Amino acid sequence: MYISVFRKAHFNAAHRLHNPNWSATKNEAIFGLCNNPHYHGHNYELEVKVSGEVDPETGYLIDLKLLSDLIRDHIEAKLDHKNLNLQVEEFQNLNPTAENIAYVIWHILRKKLDEKYDLMVRLYETPRNYVEYEGK
Ligand SMILES: Nc1nc2c(c(=O)[nH]1)N=C([C@H](O)[C@H](O)COP(=O)(O)OP(=O)(O)OP(=O)(O)O)CN2
Ligand SMILES: [Zn+2]
């Protein structure tokens, strides 16, 4: 049986959208308030979807405790209450847009999960703005 399980997580983080190759005027024109040099914050909501075949012996696709521990230890510990631009290695040369944050999260989790699983992450930057990434 091919099925999907989901785990939600949450982190707060500050960021600034900025392209260092552009002038201040162009950055302001493209990113608007998100280019605030003093940063701004979001309450990010993360949904992680893991899909695959159920183990007939356990009835589990994956132990959700294992999945929640992975997210806590490798995503929340890394991003929660951080300034993404200043404190997170992956965003030293990568604009911390919702798209790029989802991309980084997906690659971290992909390395931690058995390759038998399919993985998708959905990241809400606001209750109405969200992105999905599944590694394509
Ligand atoms: N494609 C993207 N567009 C935008 C991103 C992004 O990551 N990807 N990010 C931003 C800014 O981070 C901005 O801070 C978004 O938040 P906000 O201005 O609060 O967004 P809304 O006004 O749409 O707030 P709602 O509460 O969702 O209405 C901008 N664009
Ligand atoms: Zn923002």
TrEMBL record:
Please name the Gene3D superfamilies in this protein's record.
6-pyruvoyl tetrahydropterin synthase/QueD (3.30.479.10)
Q: Does the keyword Protease apply?
A: no
User: Keywords on this record?
Assistant: Lyase, Metal-binding, Queuosine biosynthesis, Zinc
* Swiss-Prot/TrEMBL GO biological process terms: tRNA queuosine(34) biosynthetic process
Cofactor binding description: Binds 1 zinc ion per subunit.
Catalytic reactions of this protein? 7,8-dihydroneopterin 3'-triphosphate + H2O = 6-carboxy-5,6,7,8-tetrahydropterin + triphosphate + acetaldehyde + 2 H(+)
Instruction: List the active-site residues.
Output: 34 (proton acceptor), 81 (charge relay system), 125 (charge relay system)
Q: Which InterPro entries match?
A: 6-PTP_synth/QueD, 6-PTP_synth/QueD_sf
What's the Enzyme Commission number for this chain?
4.-.-.-
Q: Where does Zn(2+) bind?
A: 15, 40, 42
Judged by the first EC level, this protein's enzyme class is lyase
Cofactors (names): Zn(2+)
MF terms from GO for this chain are: 6-carboxytetrahydropterin synthase activity; metal ion binding
Pathway it works in: Purine metabolism; 7-cyano-7-deazaguanine biosynthesis
- Assigned protein family: Belongs to the PTPS family. QueD subfamily.
What protein is this chain from? 6-carboxy-5,6,7,8-tetrahydropterin synthase
What species is this protein from? Aureispira anguillae
